[in-house]
Design a protein that fits this description.
Elements (H helix, E strand, L loop, with lengths): L2 E4 L4 E2 L12 H12 L7 E6 L4 E6 L1 H10 L5 E7 L2 H8 L12 H13 L8 H8 L3 H13 L8 E3 L5 E3 L98 H12 L1 H15 L12
Parallel strand pairs: 2-4, 3-5
Antiparallel strand pairs: 1-5, 3-4, 6-7
Helix pairs in contact: 1-2, 4-6, 5-6, 7-8
Length: 306
């Protein structure tokens, strides 16, 4: 809409349309000095309520107060929209997200809380609130949980989608393979650090923050290895006579050897120990070689190069 100059004394500034925690007096003074030098500033945003014949400021509090210091009797440039106090309040929550004095974390938190309590934001999703206010949707989720826990807002699974339809958020993602598991929170995610920081985007979170699209489930702890009990159902095998040297051609010298203690009276337990010490692939190759040895005539050496 076109901006026109109006009498600043007709503008109401007491309608809870200031989304910041507090105004910056240094900025107001700086703007006032610039206005006294003749510098022009962008138009403030006001809503005109036809029923009450009032202008309600929605954006530009610092510029308004600076104008009242520097030029209290001069008209002020303002963009005018038709709407009620509620319309002005809702518009004020989107103020300064892309221009003006950068908002503090406290300013953003106040804006999110006001948006969740506003009639227009009651049934909106976290992403819609975040887009309107200009913040991260995970931050909205945290503050929503806090307000629900203190009963400042009722718990509800109903949200309004982009197309205007009201949907039940419990059913979202039920048919999507990549959706987080039900009842998943930051405490269940691999990206959540002990310092309550999301390692994916560096944002501050709490353990009970609902899982986002980047959720990665922490894998369960591996089950302890079960060792079969020792039984006496096997014949005790006499240990080999190590005084006799194995038959070799003199070309092979053992390297990278490993000593493994195995029970001679329990082949099952011996197999488990060999698997744990040597690895499954190495043990498979040993079995192949043993099978060759057992199926070959003892008078013929199957491995002449060893």
């Amino acid at each position: 809409m076109m901006a026109n100059k109006i009498d600043p004394k007709r503008i109401r500034i007491d309608c809870d349309t200031q989304s910041r925690v507090e105004l910056n007096e240094a900025i107001i003074a700086e703007y006032a000095e610039a206005m006294e030098r003749g510098e022009e500033f962008p138009a403030i945003l006001v809503f005109f309520d036809e029923e009450t014949d009032e202008f309600i400021i929605a954006d530009g509090f610092h510029r308004y107060h600076a104008h009242m210091r520097a030029r209290p009797n001069d008209p002020i440039l303002a963009e005018q929209r038709l709407g009620t106090i509620e319309d002005a309040q809702w518009a004020s929550l989107a103020a300064n997200k892309s221009h003006g004095l950068q908002r503090t974390n406290a300013d953003k938190r106040k804006a999110i809380k006001q948006a969740l309590l506003h009639p227009k934001g009651v049934n909106l999703s976290n992403r819609q609130i975040a887009k309107h206010v200009g913040v991260d949707d995970k931050t909205v989720a945290v503050i929503r949980c806090e307000l629900e826990s203190t009963a400042e807002i009722p718990q509800s699974e109903l949200r309004q989608g982009r197309d205007g339809r009201t949907i039940n958020t419990q059913r979202i993602g039920s048919n999507q393979k990549s959706a987080p598991q039900p009842k998943a929170y930051c405490m269940h995610c691999m990206n959540f650090s002990n310092q309550q920081t999301c390692m994916f985007d560096g944002s501050i979170q709490v353990p009970w923050t609902p899982a986002c699209d980047e959720f990665e489930l922490i894998p369960p702890e591996p089950e302890p290895r079960v060792v079969p009990p020792v039984t006496n159902d096997y014949k005790i095998i006499e240990p080999p006579d190590r005084s006799k040297k194995p038959k070799t051609s003199g070309q092979y010298k053992p390297r990278n050897t490993l000593a493994v203690d195995i029970p001679l009276d329990n082949p099952q337990l011996a197999a488990v120990e060999l698997r744990e010490s040597l690895g499954e692939e190495y043990l498979k190759q040993c079995f192949i070689s043993v099978r060759v040895l057992l199926t070959t005539d003892h008078s013929d050496d199957p491995f002449p190069n060893l």
